[in-house]
Amino acid sequence: MAADNPLQLSLWSGQGYTPDWQVRISRRARRLSLRVFPGGRVEVVVPPGIGIPAVERFVSRHREWAERRSRELRLQAPQAVDRRPTAVTLGLLDRTWQVEYQSGRSNRAEALPDGLLRVHTTACTDRHVSQALVRWLNREASAHLAGLLEAVSNEVGIDYTRLQLRRQRTRWGSCSTAGTISLNLCLMFQPPAVVRYLMIHELCHRRHMNHSRRYWALVESLEPHWRRLDAELLKGWHHVPAWVFP
Q1: Which of these, 133, 143, 229, 239, lies nearest to 187 by C-alpha position?
Q2: Which long-range contacts (CB under 8 A, 24 or more apart) does 23-31 make?
Q3: What is the pLDDT of residues 179-208, one digit of tens each?
Q4: Where do the H-state alpha helices sit in the chain?
Q5: Cβ distance 9 to 23 under 8 Å?
Q6: Bridge-partner residues for 109, per DSSP?
Q7: pLDDT in tens, 61-119
Q8: What is the CA radius of gyration of the chain?
Q9: Phi and psi for 134 in degrees, rounded to 5?
């Protein structure tokens, strides 16, 4: 089983298994964990070397919670279930594109001036559509997040060494001891105020590489409404469509 690849295992064939449950083997994982994504997909992350019986026991303990959470997310964000969307909205830019599909020699998407997002795919499958849209999302993030982070950095007077954009399943951002700020591509789906707060949050780690009282005092001095914005960010996965993580 390849690491970091989603796998479909028939662990629950006799217990009402649904195809929205996946198992992913991850070299980075240190323990078994479970995540419910927008649209209701459930993913079990497994460290290398953990056998199927241990995974089955873990799933059995957490199954009731995961199924309840999955139902909640299906109701809260029904649009996220659509892996071949008819429209895509980027909250950070307050823009919506209508999606048009065409066959092509490669999987790519291009935004046209009339508010149309044309998606070219070699085959109109979930995987091909996702590849095309994620490549487009990466370009949009590169074009907008870098400039926004630089502006916020200048505003608050805290510098950084470089920016790294990543498509992560669990983290919105991070700051390394070397001063590298990592931002999640999924921030493109969040409101501008929330994205600004996340950037302030990470920049403040340039002064305090912890979550001490001094750290939060610095955050509050730069963003007095951080508690409300932090709560919005915790719910931000509701805005992330399913095609981002096929």
Answers
A1: 239
A2: 23/55, 25/1, 27/3, 28/4
A3: 999 999 999 999 999 999 999 999 999 999
A4: 52-76, 126-156, 192-204, 213-222, 226-234
A5: yes
A6: 119
A7: 988 888 888 887 776 654 555 688 999 999 999 999 999 999 999 999 999 989 999 99
A8: 20
A9: -65, -40
Q: Tokens standing for 65? A: 């919670």
Q: Which residue has the tokens 């809260």?
A: 76
Residue from 238, 235, 166 nearest 202 by CA? 166
Domain ranges of the chain: 6-77, 87-244
- Please name the fold of domain 87-244: Zincin-like (3.30.2010)
d(CA 139, CA 166): 12
Distance CA 55, CA 53 (A): 5
Cα(215)–Cα(73) distance, integer angstroms = 33
Give first-to-last CA distance, the chain, whole Å.
18
Amino acid at 20: D
